[in-house]
Amino acid sequence: MKGLLIKEKNIILTSCKTFFLIPLFFAAVLIISAIKGGGYDNWSMPVGFIFVFMSIMPINVMNTELTSRWNTSCLTMPYSRREIVTSKYLTSFIIDLAMAVVVLVVCGICSLMGAGANMGVIIQLIFRGFAMGLIPATVYLPINYKMYDRVGVGRMITGGLVGGICSGMNMSFMEKVPDGSRLMTGSFWFFVVMLVLFVISWAVSVSIFERKDCA
């Protein structure tokens, strides 16, 4: 498993370098807004995009894996199919966790600059953003393992649909401004629901891939 996670890290750093500009861009937007005296009412959308776009990286590298034939050659290595699937989900979760730390730091800086957000508001944003970041893997990975050894238009269309769904949900779910009155709000329960669905998605992907004939 450690080897698979190292592979995920290396391929992301090699083929997804431009993705790292996304949190930097939105972090700059938030900080500039705070410097100009803007409040936290415009934080939700940028925070959502930070999580969503960064969480797409493990999915994006699958194109590289198809080109290099990793998707089939890995089956000859001493890894179980469960481990191969789990490494993708763990990578997605670790990226979301890292983005939660980034958002916490950036929002903390903005608050110190007078943006007026308390910790309750920031935590709600992180709960909601983290949940949004779990959606790409939850939706796409079971489909990916169903058509694991296929290359073509179907995979491209599916990826585009998932991207469109995530963007639409981000605009719908992230537009509400947190009130900061308490932590156990809809944002928290949205996170809990997505976490449960993420685990269910993992179980479905494992079941599909263990029965898949990739010969």
Search tags:
single chain; 215 residues; 9 helices; 0% strand
Largest sheet: none
What's the helix count? 9
Terminal-residue CA separation: 23 Å
Number of strands: 0
Order of helices and strands: HHHHHHHHH
- The share of residues in extended strands comes to under 5%
Query: What gross morphology would you assign?
Result: elongated
Radius of gyration from the alpha-carbon trace, in angstroms: 18 Å
The overall pLDDT average reads: 75
SS-based structural class? mainly alpha
* Contiguous runs where pLDDT drops below 50 for at least 5 residues: none
Percent in helix:
over 70%
Overview of the molecule:
There is one protein chain. The two termini are 23 Å apart. The protein has 9 helices and no strands. The chain is elongated, with a radius of gyration of 18 Å. The model has no long low-confidence stretch (mean pLDDT 75). The protein has 215 residues and is mostly helical. 77% of the residues lie in helices and 0% in strands.
